[in-house]
Amino acid sequence: MGYKREETSEYHAELYPYLRSWGLREFHDEASYYDWQRETLSKEELRDFQQLIEHRCGGEDVQGDIDFYDRLARRDLIPVLYSQRFQYYLTIGTFVCGRIAPANKVLDFGCGVGILTLFFAQQHPGVEFVGFDRSSRSIEMACLEAEKRRIRNVRFEISQLPPQQISGTYDLILSTHALFQAEWEPGIPSQTWKTFQRPCDPYRQEQLEILTGLQGRLNALLQALRPMGRMILFEKTWNLGRRILFQRALDTRGLFPVSSPVFCRYRSVDEEMIDGPLYEVARLSYGVEPFEWNEEPYRGSGETLYRCTGIAAERMGQVLLRDTVRASITGVHSQSGSWVFRFGLWNEIVPWGLCEYSSGLTGLVIGGGEDQDLIDQLVETVRHITESDFQELVHDFWGSMIQAPEDPSMPCYENHHPSAQIIYESLPSKCIQQETTFKDDMGREMHIELGTTTHLTYLYCANTFDQRQLVLIDDGRAQVLYEYYRESLQRPHGPPA
Ligand SMILES: C[S@@+](CC[C@H](N)C(=O)[O-])C[C@H]1O[C@@H](n2cnc3c(N)ncnc32)[C@H](O)[C@@H]1O
Predict the structure, then answer these.
(1) Could you report how far apart the first and last alpha carbons of the chain are, in Å?
(2) For a tag on the chain, would you pick the N or C end, based on fewer CB atoms within 10 A?
(3) Which residue CA neighbors atom 7 of ligand 1 most closely?
(4) Residue 235: which of 210, 261, 204 has the closest Cα?
(5) Pocket residue to mutate for ligand 1, from 87, 181, 218, 234, most atoms within 8 A of Cβ
(6) How far is the CA of 60 from the centre of ligand 1 (A)?
(7) Do 147 and 79 form a contact (C-beta atoms < 8 A)?
(8) Closest by alpha carbon to 129, among 148, 104, 160?
């Protein structure tokens, strides 16, 4: 889900050199990041740094958290630590900076060493900024940087919220990864493993808000928000259980989204992250038509595309070709021979494309329901493709698989996303062979099921914290799934990876 907006692009260009001025560097692979860590820090510094990260306490250990940020607020550690967050800063910084107007007075709650606060203040010299954090060493560093950079429209305060109060009122309050940390808390479970819906339980909601510290922080921030003020909040609420807990906490305090919440995707070194969503909320008195809260799981287009070649593609292809073929495009390649690329919508839900060469290569791509547009684009591309571009397309889709030795246990289809549920529900002539439902050691209700559908065997795992996994394999190789099923029962922590 993109968020590119005209108004924010200028800040992106400014933010890049700004982050470099803090010594942060952008890395795209782990090896170069760790090499650079070793070059930048002495052996002792590196050991201290790693120990700090490893020994960070979970839970609501306030003093432990303050110590952690105090000890990290060192000018030599900042580049190493925050380079991992380079793309995070670019993404969030650009987005938030574009939404600061028309505020005149802005509070940045949990500002840390002020990397984002100082950038916002620099970009909006007519706006008064206050950065607020309970780590005194972080605030010290933020003040030094403000001085060094001669940024005068910002001040920083050491404060722990609660018990301390915020002095003054603001027409914009920001919080990025500060208000709802508590990563150990998965939030509200769904009613059963069959659904993503959460029951409405005000008592449990309040208990969780107290447990995670959200209640005290949010109430204190609200007191400092002017009647027509806004909040821009970006927290680790990607998981639905946490997202619903957070959204309901905002809702019960009379806060509503005034723009569409945005999930952000960025890279953390070599890992693709989905974070947020980023909320812009205000009270009803703000005067704009509020957006609805969305309690559905996140579904990103393209995320669930499954590709396979060889035996898995051939066997699944035989099943798919029994269904209606919606488009069939043929061509000839001078070296690889003739090809046919067929497309369809299995069970009216699952879009697919099957490419077969006369020389024997078969490649299959299957999407989740939300990938229909991508498959439609693929049909259009293949319709108008040149010979050399076609080879390139095949290479892009299945390149490494074509070269690698064939894996005999490769599934015909696999989906680890919420969209697996609707596909599981739509499987034709489903016949359950074995199933079990139990509570795992984290209290999640977990369901594992093995069964058959037309010409295929399936394994389905689901739990009350939105994990879903659907694996399909042809009947000839079904033994693989029987073994998976047996293993899953011996490993009651979750579906097999
Ligand atoms: C993960 S850092 C995020 C820093 C910054 N907002 C960013 O996006 O880079 C979280 C910060 O929130 C601060 N913080 C957490 N809870 C707080 C509280 N109750 N009162 C004040 N500061 C708090 C921590 O000290 C830490 O500096």
Answers:
(1) 25
(2) C
(3) 176
(4) 261
(5) 181
(6) 13
(7) no
(8) 104
Give residue ranges with CB within 6 A of ligand 1.
69, 110-112, 115-116, 133-135, 138, 160-161, 176-178, 217
**Positive or negative CA dihedral for 202, 205, 211, 217?**
negative
Domain ranges of the chain: 6-286, 306-403, 413-490
Among 96-100, 401-405, 466-470, the minimum mean pLDDT is found in 401-405
| Paired tokens of 466 | 């939105």
Is CATH 3.40.50.150 correct for 6-286?
Answer: yes
Nearest by Cα to 196 from 239, 247, 144, 154? 239
d(Cα 449, Cα 460) in Å, to the nearest integer? 5
CA of 15 to the centre of ligand 1 (A): 21
Contacts 24+ apart (CB under 8 A), 317-322: 317/354, 317/356, 317/362, 317/364, 318/455, 319/346, 319/412, 319/454, 319/455, 319/456, 319/474, 320/344, 320/346, 320/352, 320/354, 320/364, 321/354, 322/454, 322/455
Residue 1: the pLDDT is 35
Q: For the CA atoms of the chain, what is the radius of gyration? A: 26
Outline where 253-307 has alpha helix (H): none
CA dist 246 and 153 (Å) reads: 31
217 CA distance to ligand 1 middle (Å): 11
The model's pTM is: 0.90
Query: Which amino acid would we find at residue 423?
Result: I
Bond from prior residue into 199 cis (ω within 30 degrees of 0): no
CA of 106 from ligand 1 middle (Å) equals 16
Hey, what amino acid is at 62? V
Strands 431-439 and 445-453, how do they pair?
A: antiparallel
Query: How close is the Cα of 344 to the center of ligand 1, in Å?
Result: 49
- Position in ligand 1 atom list of the atom nearest CA 82: 9
Provide the token pair at 133: 């954090």
Confidence of residue 61 (pLDDT cuts 50, 70, 90): confident
Report the distance separating Cα 181 and Cα 234, nearest Å: 11
Q: In whole numbers, what is the pLDDT of the chain averaged over residues?
A: 90
- Burial of residue 466, with CB atoms counted within 10 A of its CB: 0-12 exposed, 13-18 middle, 19 or more buried: buried
69 C-alpha to ligand 1 centroid (Å): 8
